[in-house]
Amino acid sequence: MPGKLKVKIVAGRHLPVMDRASDLTDAFVEVKFGNTTFKTDVYLKSLNPQWNSEWFKFEVDDEDLQDEPLQITVLDHDTYSANDAIGKVYIDIDPLLYSEAATVISGWFPIYDTIHGIRGEINVVVKVDLFNDLNRFRQSSCGVKFFCTTSIPKCYRAVIIHGFVEELVVNEDPEYQWIDRIRTPRASNEARQRLISLMSGELQRKIGLKVLEMRGNAVVGYLQCFDLEGESGLVVRAIGTACTLDKLSSPAAFLPACNSPSKEMKEIPFNEDPNPNTHSSGPSTPLKNQTYSFSPSKSYSRQSSSSDTDLSLTPKTGMGSGSAGKEGGPFKALLRQQTQSALEQREFPFFTLTAFPPGFLVHVGGVVSARSVKLLDRIHNPAFVGIMGNTRSYKLLDWNSFNSDEPETRDAWWAEIRQEIKSHAKALGCHAVVGYSESTSICEEVCILSASGTAAVLNPRFLQDGTVEGCLEQRLEENLSTRCGFCHIPYDELNMPFPAHLTYCYNCRKQKVPDVLFTTIDLPTDATVIGKGCLIQARLCRLKKKAQAEANATAISNLLPFMEYEVHTQLMNKLKLKGMNALFGLRIQITVGENMLMGLASATGVYLAALPTPGGIQIAGKTPNDGSYEQHISHMQKKINDTIAKNKELYEINPPEISEEIIGSPIPEPRQRSRLLRSQSESSDEVTELDLSHGKKDAFVLEIDDTDAMEDVHSLLTDVPPPSGFYSCNTEIMPGINNWTSEIQMFTSVRVIRLSSLNLTNQALNKNFNDLCENLLKSLYFKLRSMIPCCLCHVNFTVSLPEDELIQVTVTAVAITFDKNQALQTTKTSVEKSLQRASTDNEELLQFPLELCSDSLPSHPFPPVKEHLESASSNSGIPAAQRAVTVEKASPVGDGNFRNRSAPPCANSTVGVVKMTPLSFIPGAKITKYLGIINMFFIRETTSLREEGGVSGFLHAFIAEVFAMVRAHVAALGGNAVVSYIMKQCVFMENPNKNQAQCLINVSGDAVVFVRESDLEVVSSQQPTTNCQSSCTEGEVTT
Amino acid sequence: MTSELDIFVGNTTLIDEDVYRLWLDGYSVTDAVALRVRSGILEQTGATAAVLQSDTMDHYRTFHMLERLLHAPPKLLHQLIFQIPPSRQALLIERYYAFDEAFVWEVLGKKLSKGTKKDLDDISTKTGITLKSCRRQFDNFKRVFKVVEEMRGSLVDNIQQHFLLSDRLARDYAAIVFFANNRFETGKKKLQYLSFGDFAFCAELMIQNGTLGAVDSQMDDMDMDLDKEFLQDMKELKVLAADKDLLDLHKSLVCTALLGKLGVFSEMEANFKNLSRGLVNVAAKLTHNKDVRDLFVDLVEKFVEPCRSDHWPLSDVRFFLNQYSASVHSLDGFRHQALWDRYMGTLRGCLLRLYHD
């Protein structure tokens, strides 16, 4: 009996009227955990009940603590009929299970009902007493920290980055069970919410076990997704990067924060030992990457063997069945069999991180991606479990029993794709994949699985336990001494995996670099960038015939390579049009619908100083005899050239002129070419290489031979730049802007358009889609105009095709203002000045060697935990703001002079502000504590769509409610912000004829405590001793 | 291509003050967009009409969702759905409860019941204020009235506490509630020259001195109702007008004191008895509800108009009223000094305020 969960129900407020006769409510609360339920007394006739209950105590396994959510149901007591449910609160108690995070969950939670939305609030206090020894876990993995952040969290340092962890759990979707025909929508929604909550808990626990087996203590870049496969079930899958993290708690950290944290970071935690004497390679040694003494397979075989032995100690199957049996009820966990996959997964040298400790990333090869089309229809056609994209033939996989092996099947699907990614990375001479992510798109029974990442060569120092100084230290030195190392090609120049044109690096002039670089990661903090970056999107639609099962899958498989090709071409063209030479944060999303496929690629374009200046775009006509045609072509050409020139000015791209002699290249080769290596299938011999070059021309050539091509060129030119004062990017921070202010605004915007179904052509579709995205961006710029000068960061577009003629685009991003004065200075800078490190200021934001105990800080702009508790526990129904107002009596002195009164009482609100941001940091503030992961899933349904303001009113209210619930949970944990926030799913379905709509939303992020930098300085100078003590005690916990 | 759904939700709720004003003024989305286009916003921002339409819809939706909370402003402070900085919350509330002078004129002193609501249409046509805005303002008056009606303690404080209004606005509402409760007649042609501010000022003085709460702050009762006992007692003042000796004495006292100090001395001397009788009779009649309602009409008829026709400057009116009320202390036969002071204290303030063109 390793844990005791204690819950106290304090009070409720703003409850809905449940008794029409009295206009009041007789409310009571049921508190449920696992199979145990407690009830409070009925608080008669009040909309603001004060239950002030005893402590309800649940004695439970820590395994349950991890899997189960605490379920609080508020009901209206009815003597004669069944009690009416007002709503529920699910509380994930996971943050209480690791000692560094929150110690108590206490606060006002919105009471949520899947039909009515938020109906009042309830004040709850939750505590957990863990009796066990942290080292003895088998079934549970309490103590493993989870972070959504895709970089090393700010107040930690990475000791070892172990690598990829993944897991998936499959279950039947309650929505599709027979019982759903007879139960109410509310019961069905609640069953689904609860199931997903359970599955997430289980998944997280299992991932935690894997991490413990790898001897790690944390998962960074944790990404959990749901696949709603309809009839065939519900898949919850997660990937992440296992790490061993250490809390930063050196006394030196209490020096003022501005004292070059970057230097400190390099010296203390990552003790690099660059040895310039052994520098042996130069321009004369072209076979660069062969000088590395380890081959990818070798360096990883070490780890996989060790993890293999770890795994053998833990019989996972036993644990799985145990948990499944105990659940009882509808929850039937189907657990994957641990067979060969244990070893296999360690063979995936993947990292979900997108930003890395200095020195971690050695070289970047390019984007690797793989897609596979699968049929979900297991019942009708069990033999065909998969149709592999490009092979155009069905592959029989010999899994024996399909019902019990379903997770196995899903696992196998992903294993295939990962294998493919790995082989692509190898082809690029890389032993690892960073910025790795996986996604699915499902339409009826067809599912496209996608994985992508950036092939890279990593510094093995962080990957292994202990110090491995022997073999590789001296060959890494040139990368550490320059900031261009990551641009240098990792592959063998004479044996390139695809035709590419290389030049000597424009920065160090020693190593070869490609002409263009595509990556899925964030811009490395030490990269040298010229000018500013911008959001670049490629958008594409392709019509597809409606078809069934295999025919459908085949049709999709056939379309995919063309889509990829076009998306890539568009990206390349747009990049060149912007006068830039590298893409970061590239995310290509292919969405499948009934009758079309959509492709949306987003990335942040930048000009890397190390890479050559991109050539222009040249237009060539196929029919050179027509005079007017020629004229037209030259007109277009002029327009394109003007646009490039304008963009260069707009993004301040003025690279220093370098004459060819200085480069001294023996091979001043023409530059062009794309280098995105990808494929749609497992067939490695069919790796699609895109050679977009046309002979030896010095520019990117577009041939206009038909109207389609013309359209393409036109569409290139229709993208309007953001209005002045606005920038946008989909990476964490905007290269070239580093004077952020603390004003941030996170938002979600959703648009759905209905296509007119008449004679849709690809062109019309493309135009519609393009307009949809552009208009959406324009609207955002307009809405946020008061924040100018500002940058939209981490712009994340998601496309879905909920119905035949509907396209849904969901955007989440954060707008951050920056200091205009400093921005103006940078515009004025000369060429040298514009060669700034993207990091200089950001590094201070990103890396905090500081560790402060949040409780000792007077974080006055945001009410600290204590105050929150105070107001929470105060039992008088009068809000504090009102109590504060002194009740002044009217004085009988009537001279006609007005009495003096206090200012409007609105000034002091009792609801603390909780910031939300998709970024891993908060500008102008330091994150002092991570309180745990927030992972929430909500369903909202309505049968009175019109009354709730139509689809827009319905979804608007729902998203606002989701934000509110996230904020409430964070506040209850004692936090004041969510970082790395992401809305992973927003599935919206409507049936206007029936006046119904349903929406599912899944969000996640890291709850944190942050302190304004200005406050921090004051505090650290005032009470350094207190802070030191508290941080020391906290530091000890990391084991 | 038609837009089925189009929403924007910020972690901090975006409030556009201009759009909020349009919404409060009761314009439809289409009208609001047209008005915004006319304001030149498209040129300033380079946006398209479609963007403006979408933005306006979005704000309207937000306001619509907020409206429920604005009906009970403390709820706005404690709700969790919309994260709004306190200064913005205050602005939302203040603007929501703000009213048009033209509108308040029409309903001041009227019963805030359903019957009047039907007249909103007429008011809307008469004032040019949209029906929607009229309805909001009327409902605000009614809501505030309903909440504070039965409440003890200071009227302004109650309003401020339950509606979180600024001091200024809370006072205005107190006046509106007070007028509605006592049904003072304000619609007469004679009173047209007065502003809402004038009435509000008088209401405040009357609340301070003429209501139950005013006499004894410990015995806190309603600020809304005039002190019946006080009104009853004022019958006793009648003697000042009825007793000829007293009236003459009073006149001579005032005239002696003001001799040479008043520009309009002769006019005052000639009119003294009329004016005094008027003021005293107003006080004595207040036991009847009908006469309470006509208080302002009477004051204007009996005092303001006669003085105005003789072109009394305001300073002379002040001198006169001060002396007029002070001289009563020297009247030996008069025993209701305290009552007189309470009455005249309020009345002097009101009359000075009402005395203008």
TrEMBL record, chain B:
GO terms for molecular function: fibroblast growth factor binding. It comes from the Eukaryota. GO terms for biological process: platelet aggregation. InterPro entries: FIBP. One of its GO terms (cellular component) is nucleus. PANTHER family: ACIDIC FIBROBLAST GROWTH FACTOR INTRACELLULAR BINDING PROTEIN, ACIDIC FIBROBLAST GROWTH FACTOR INTRACELLULAR-BINDING PROTEIN. This is FGF1 intracellular binding protein.
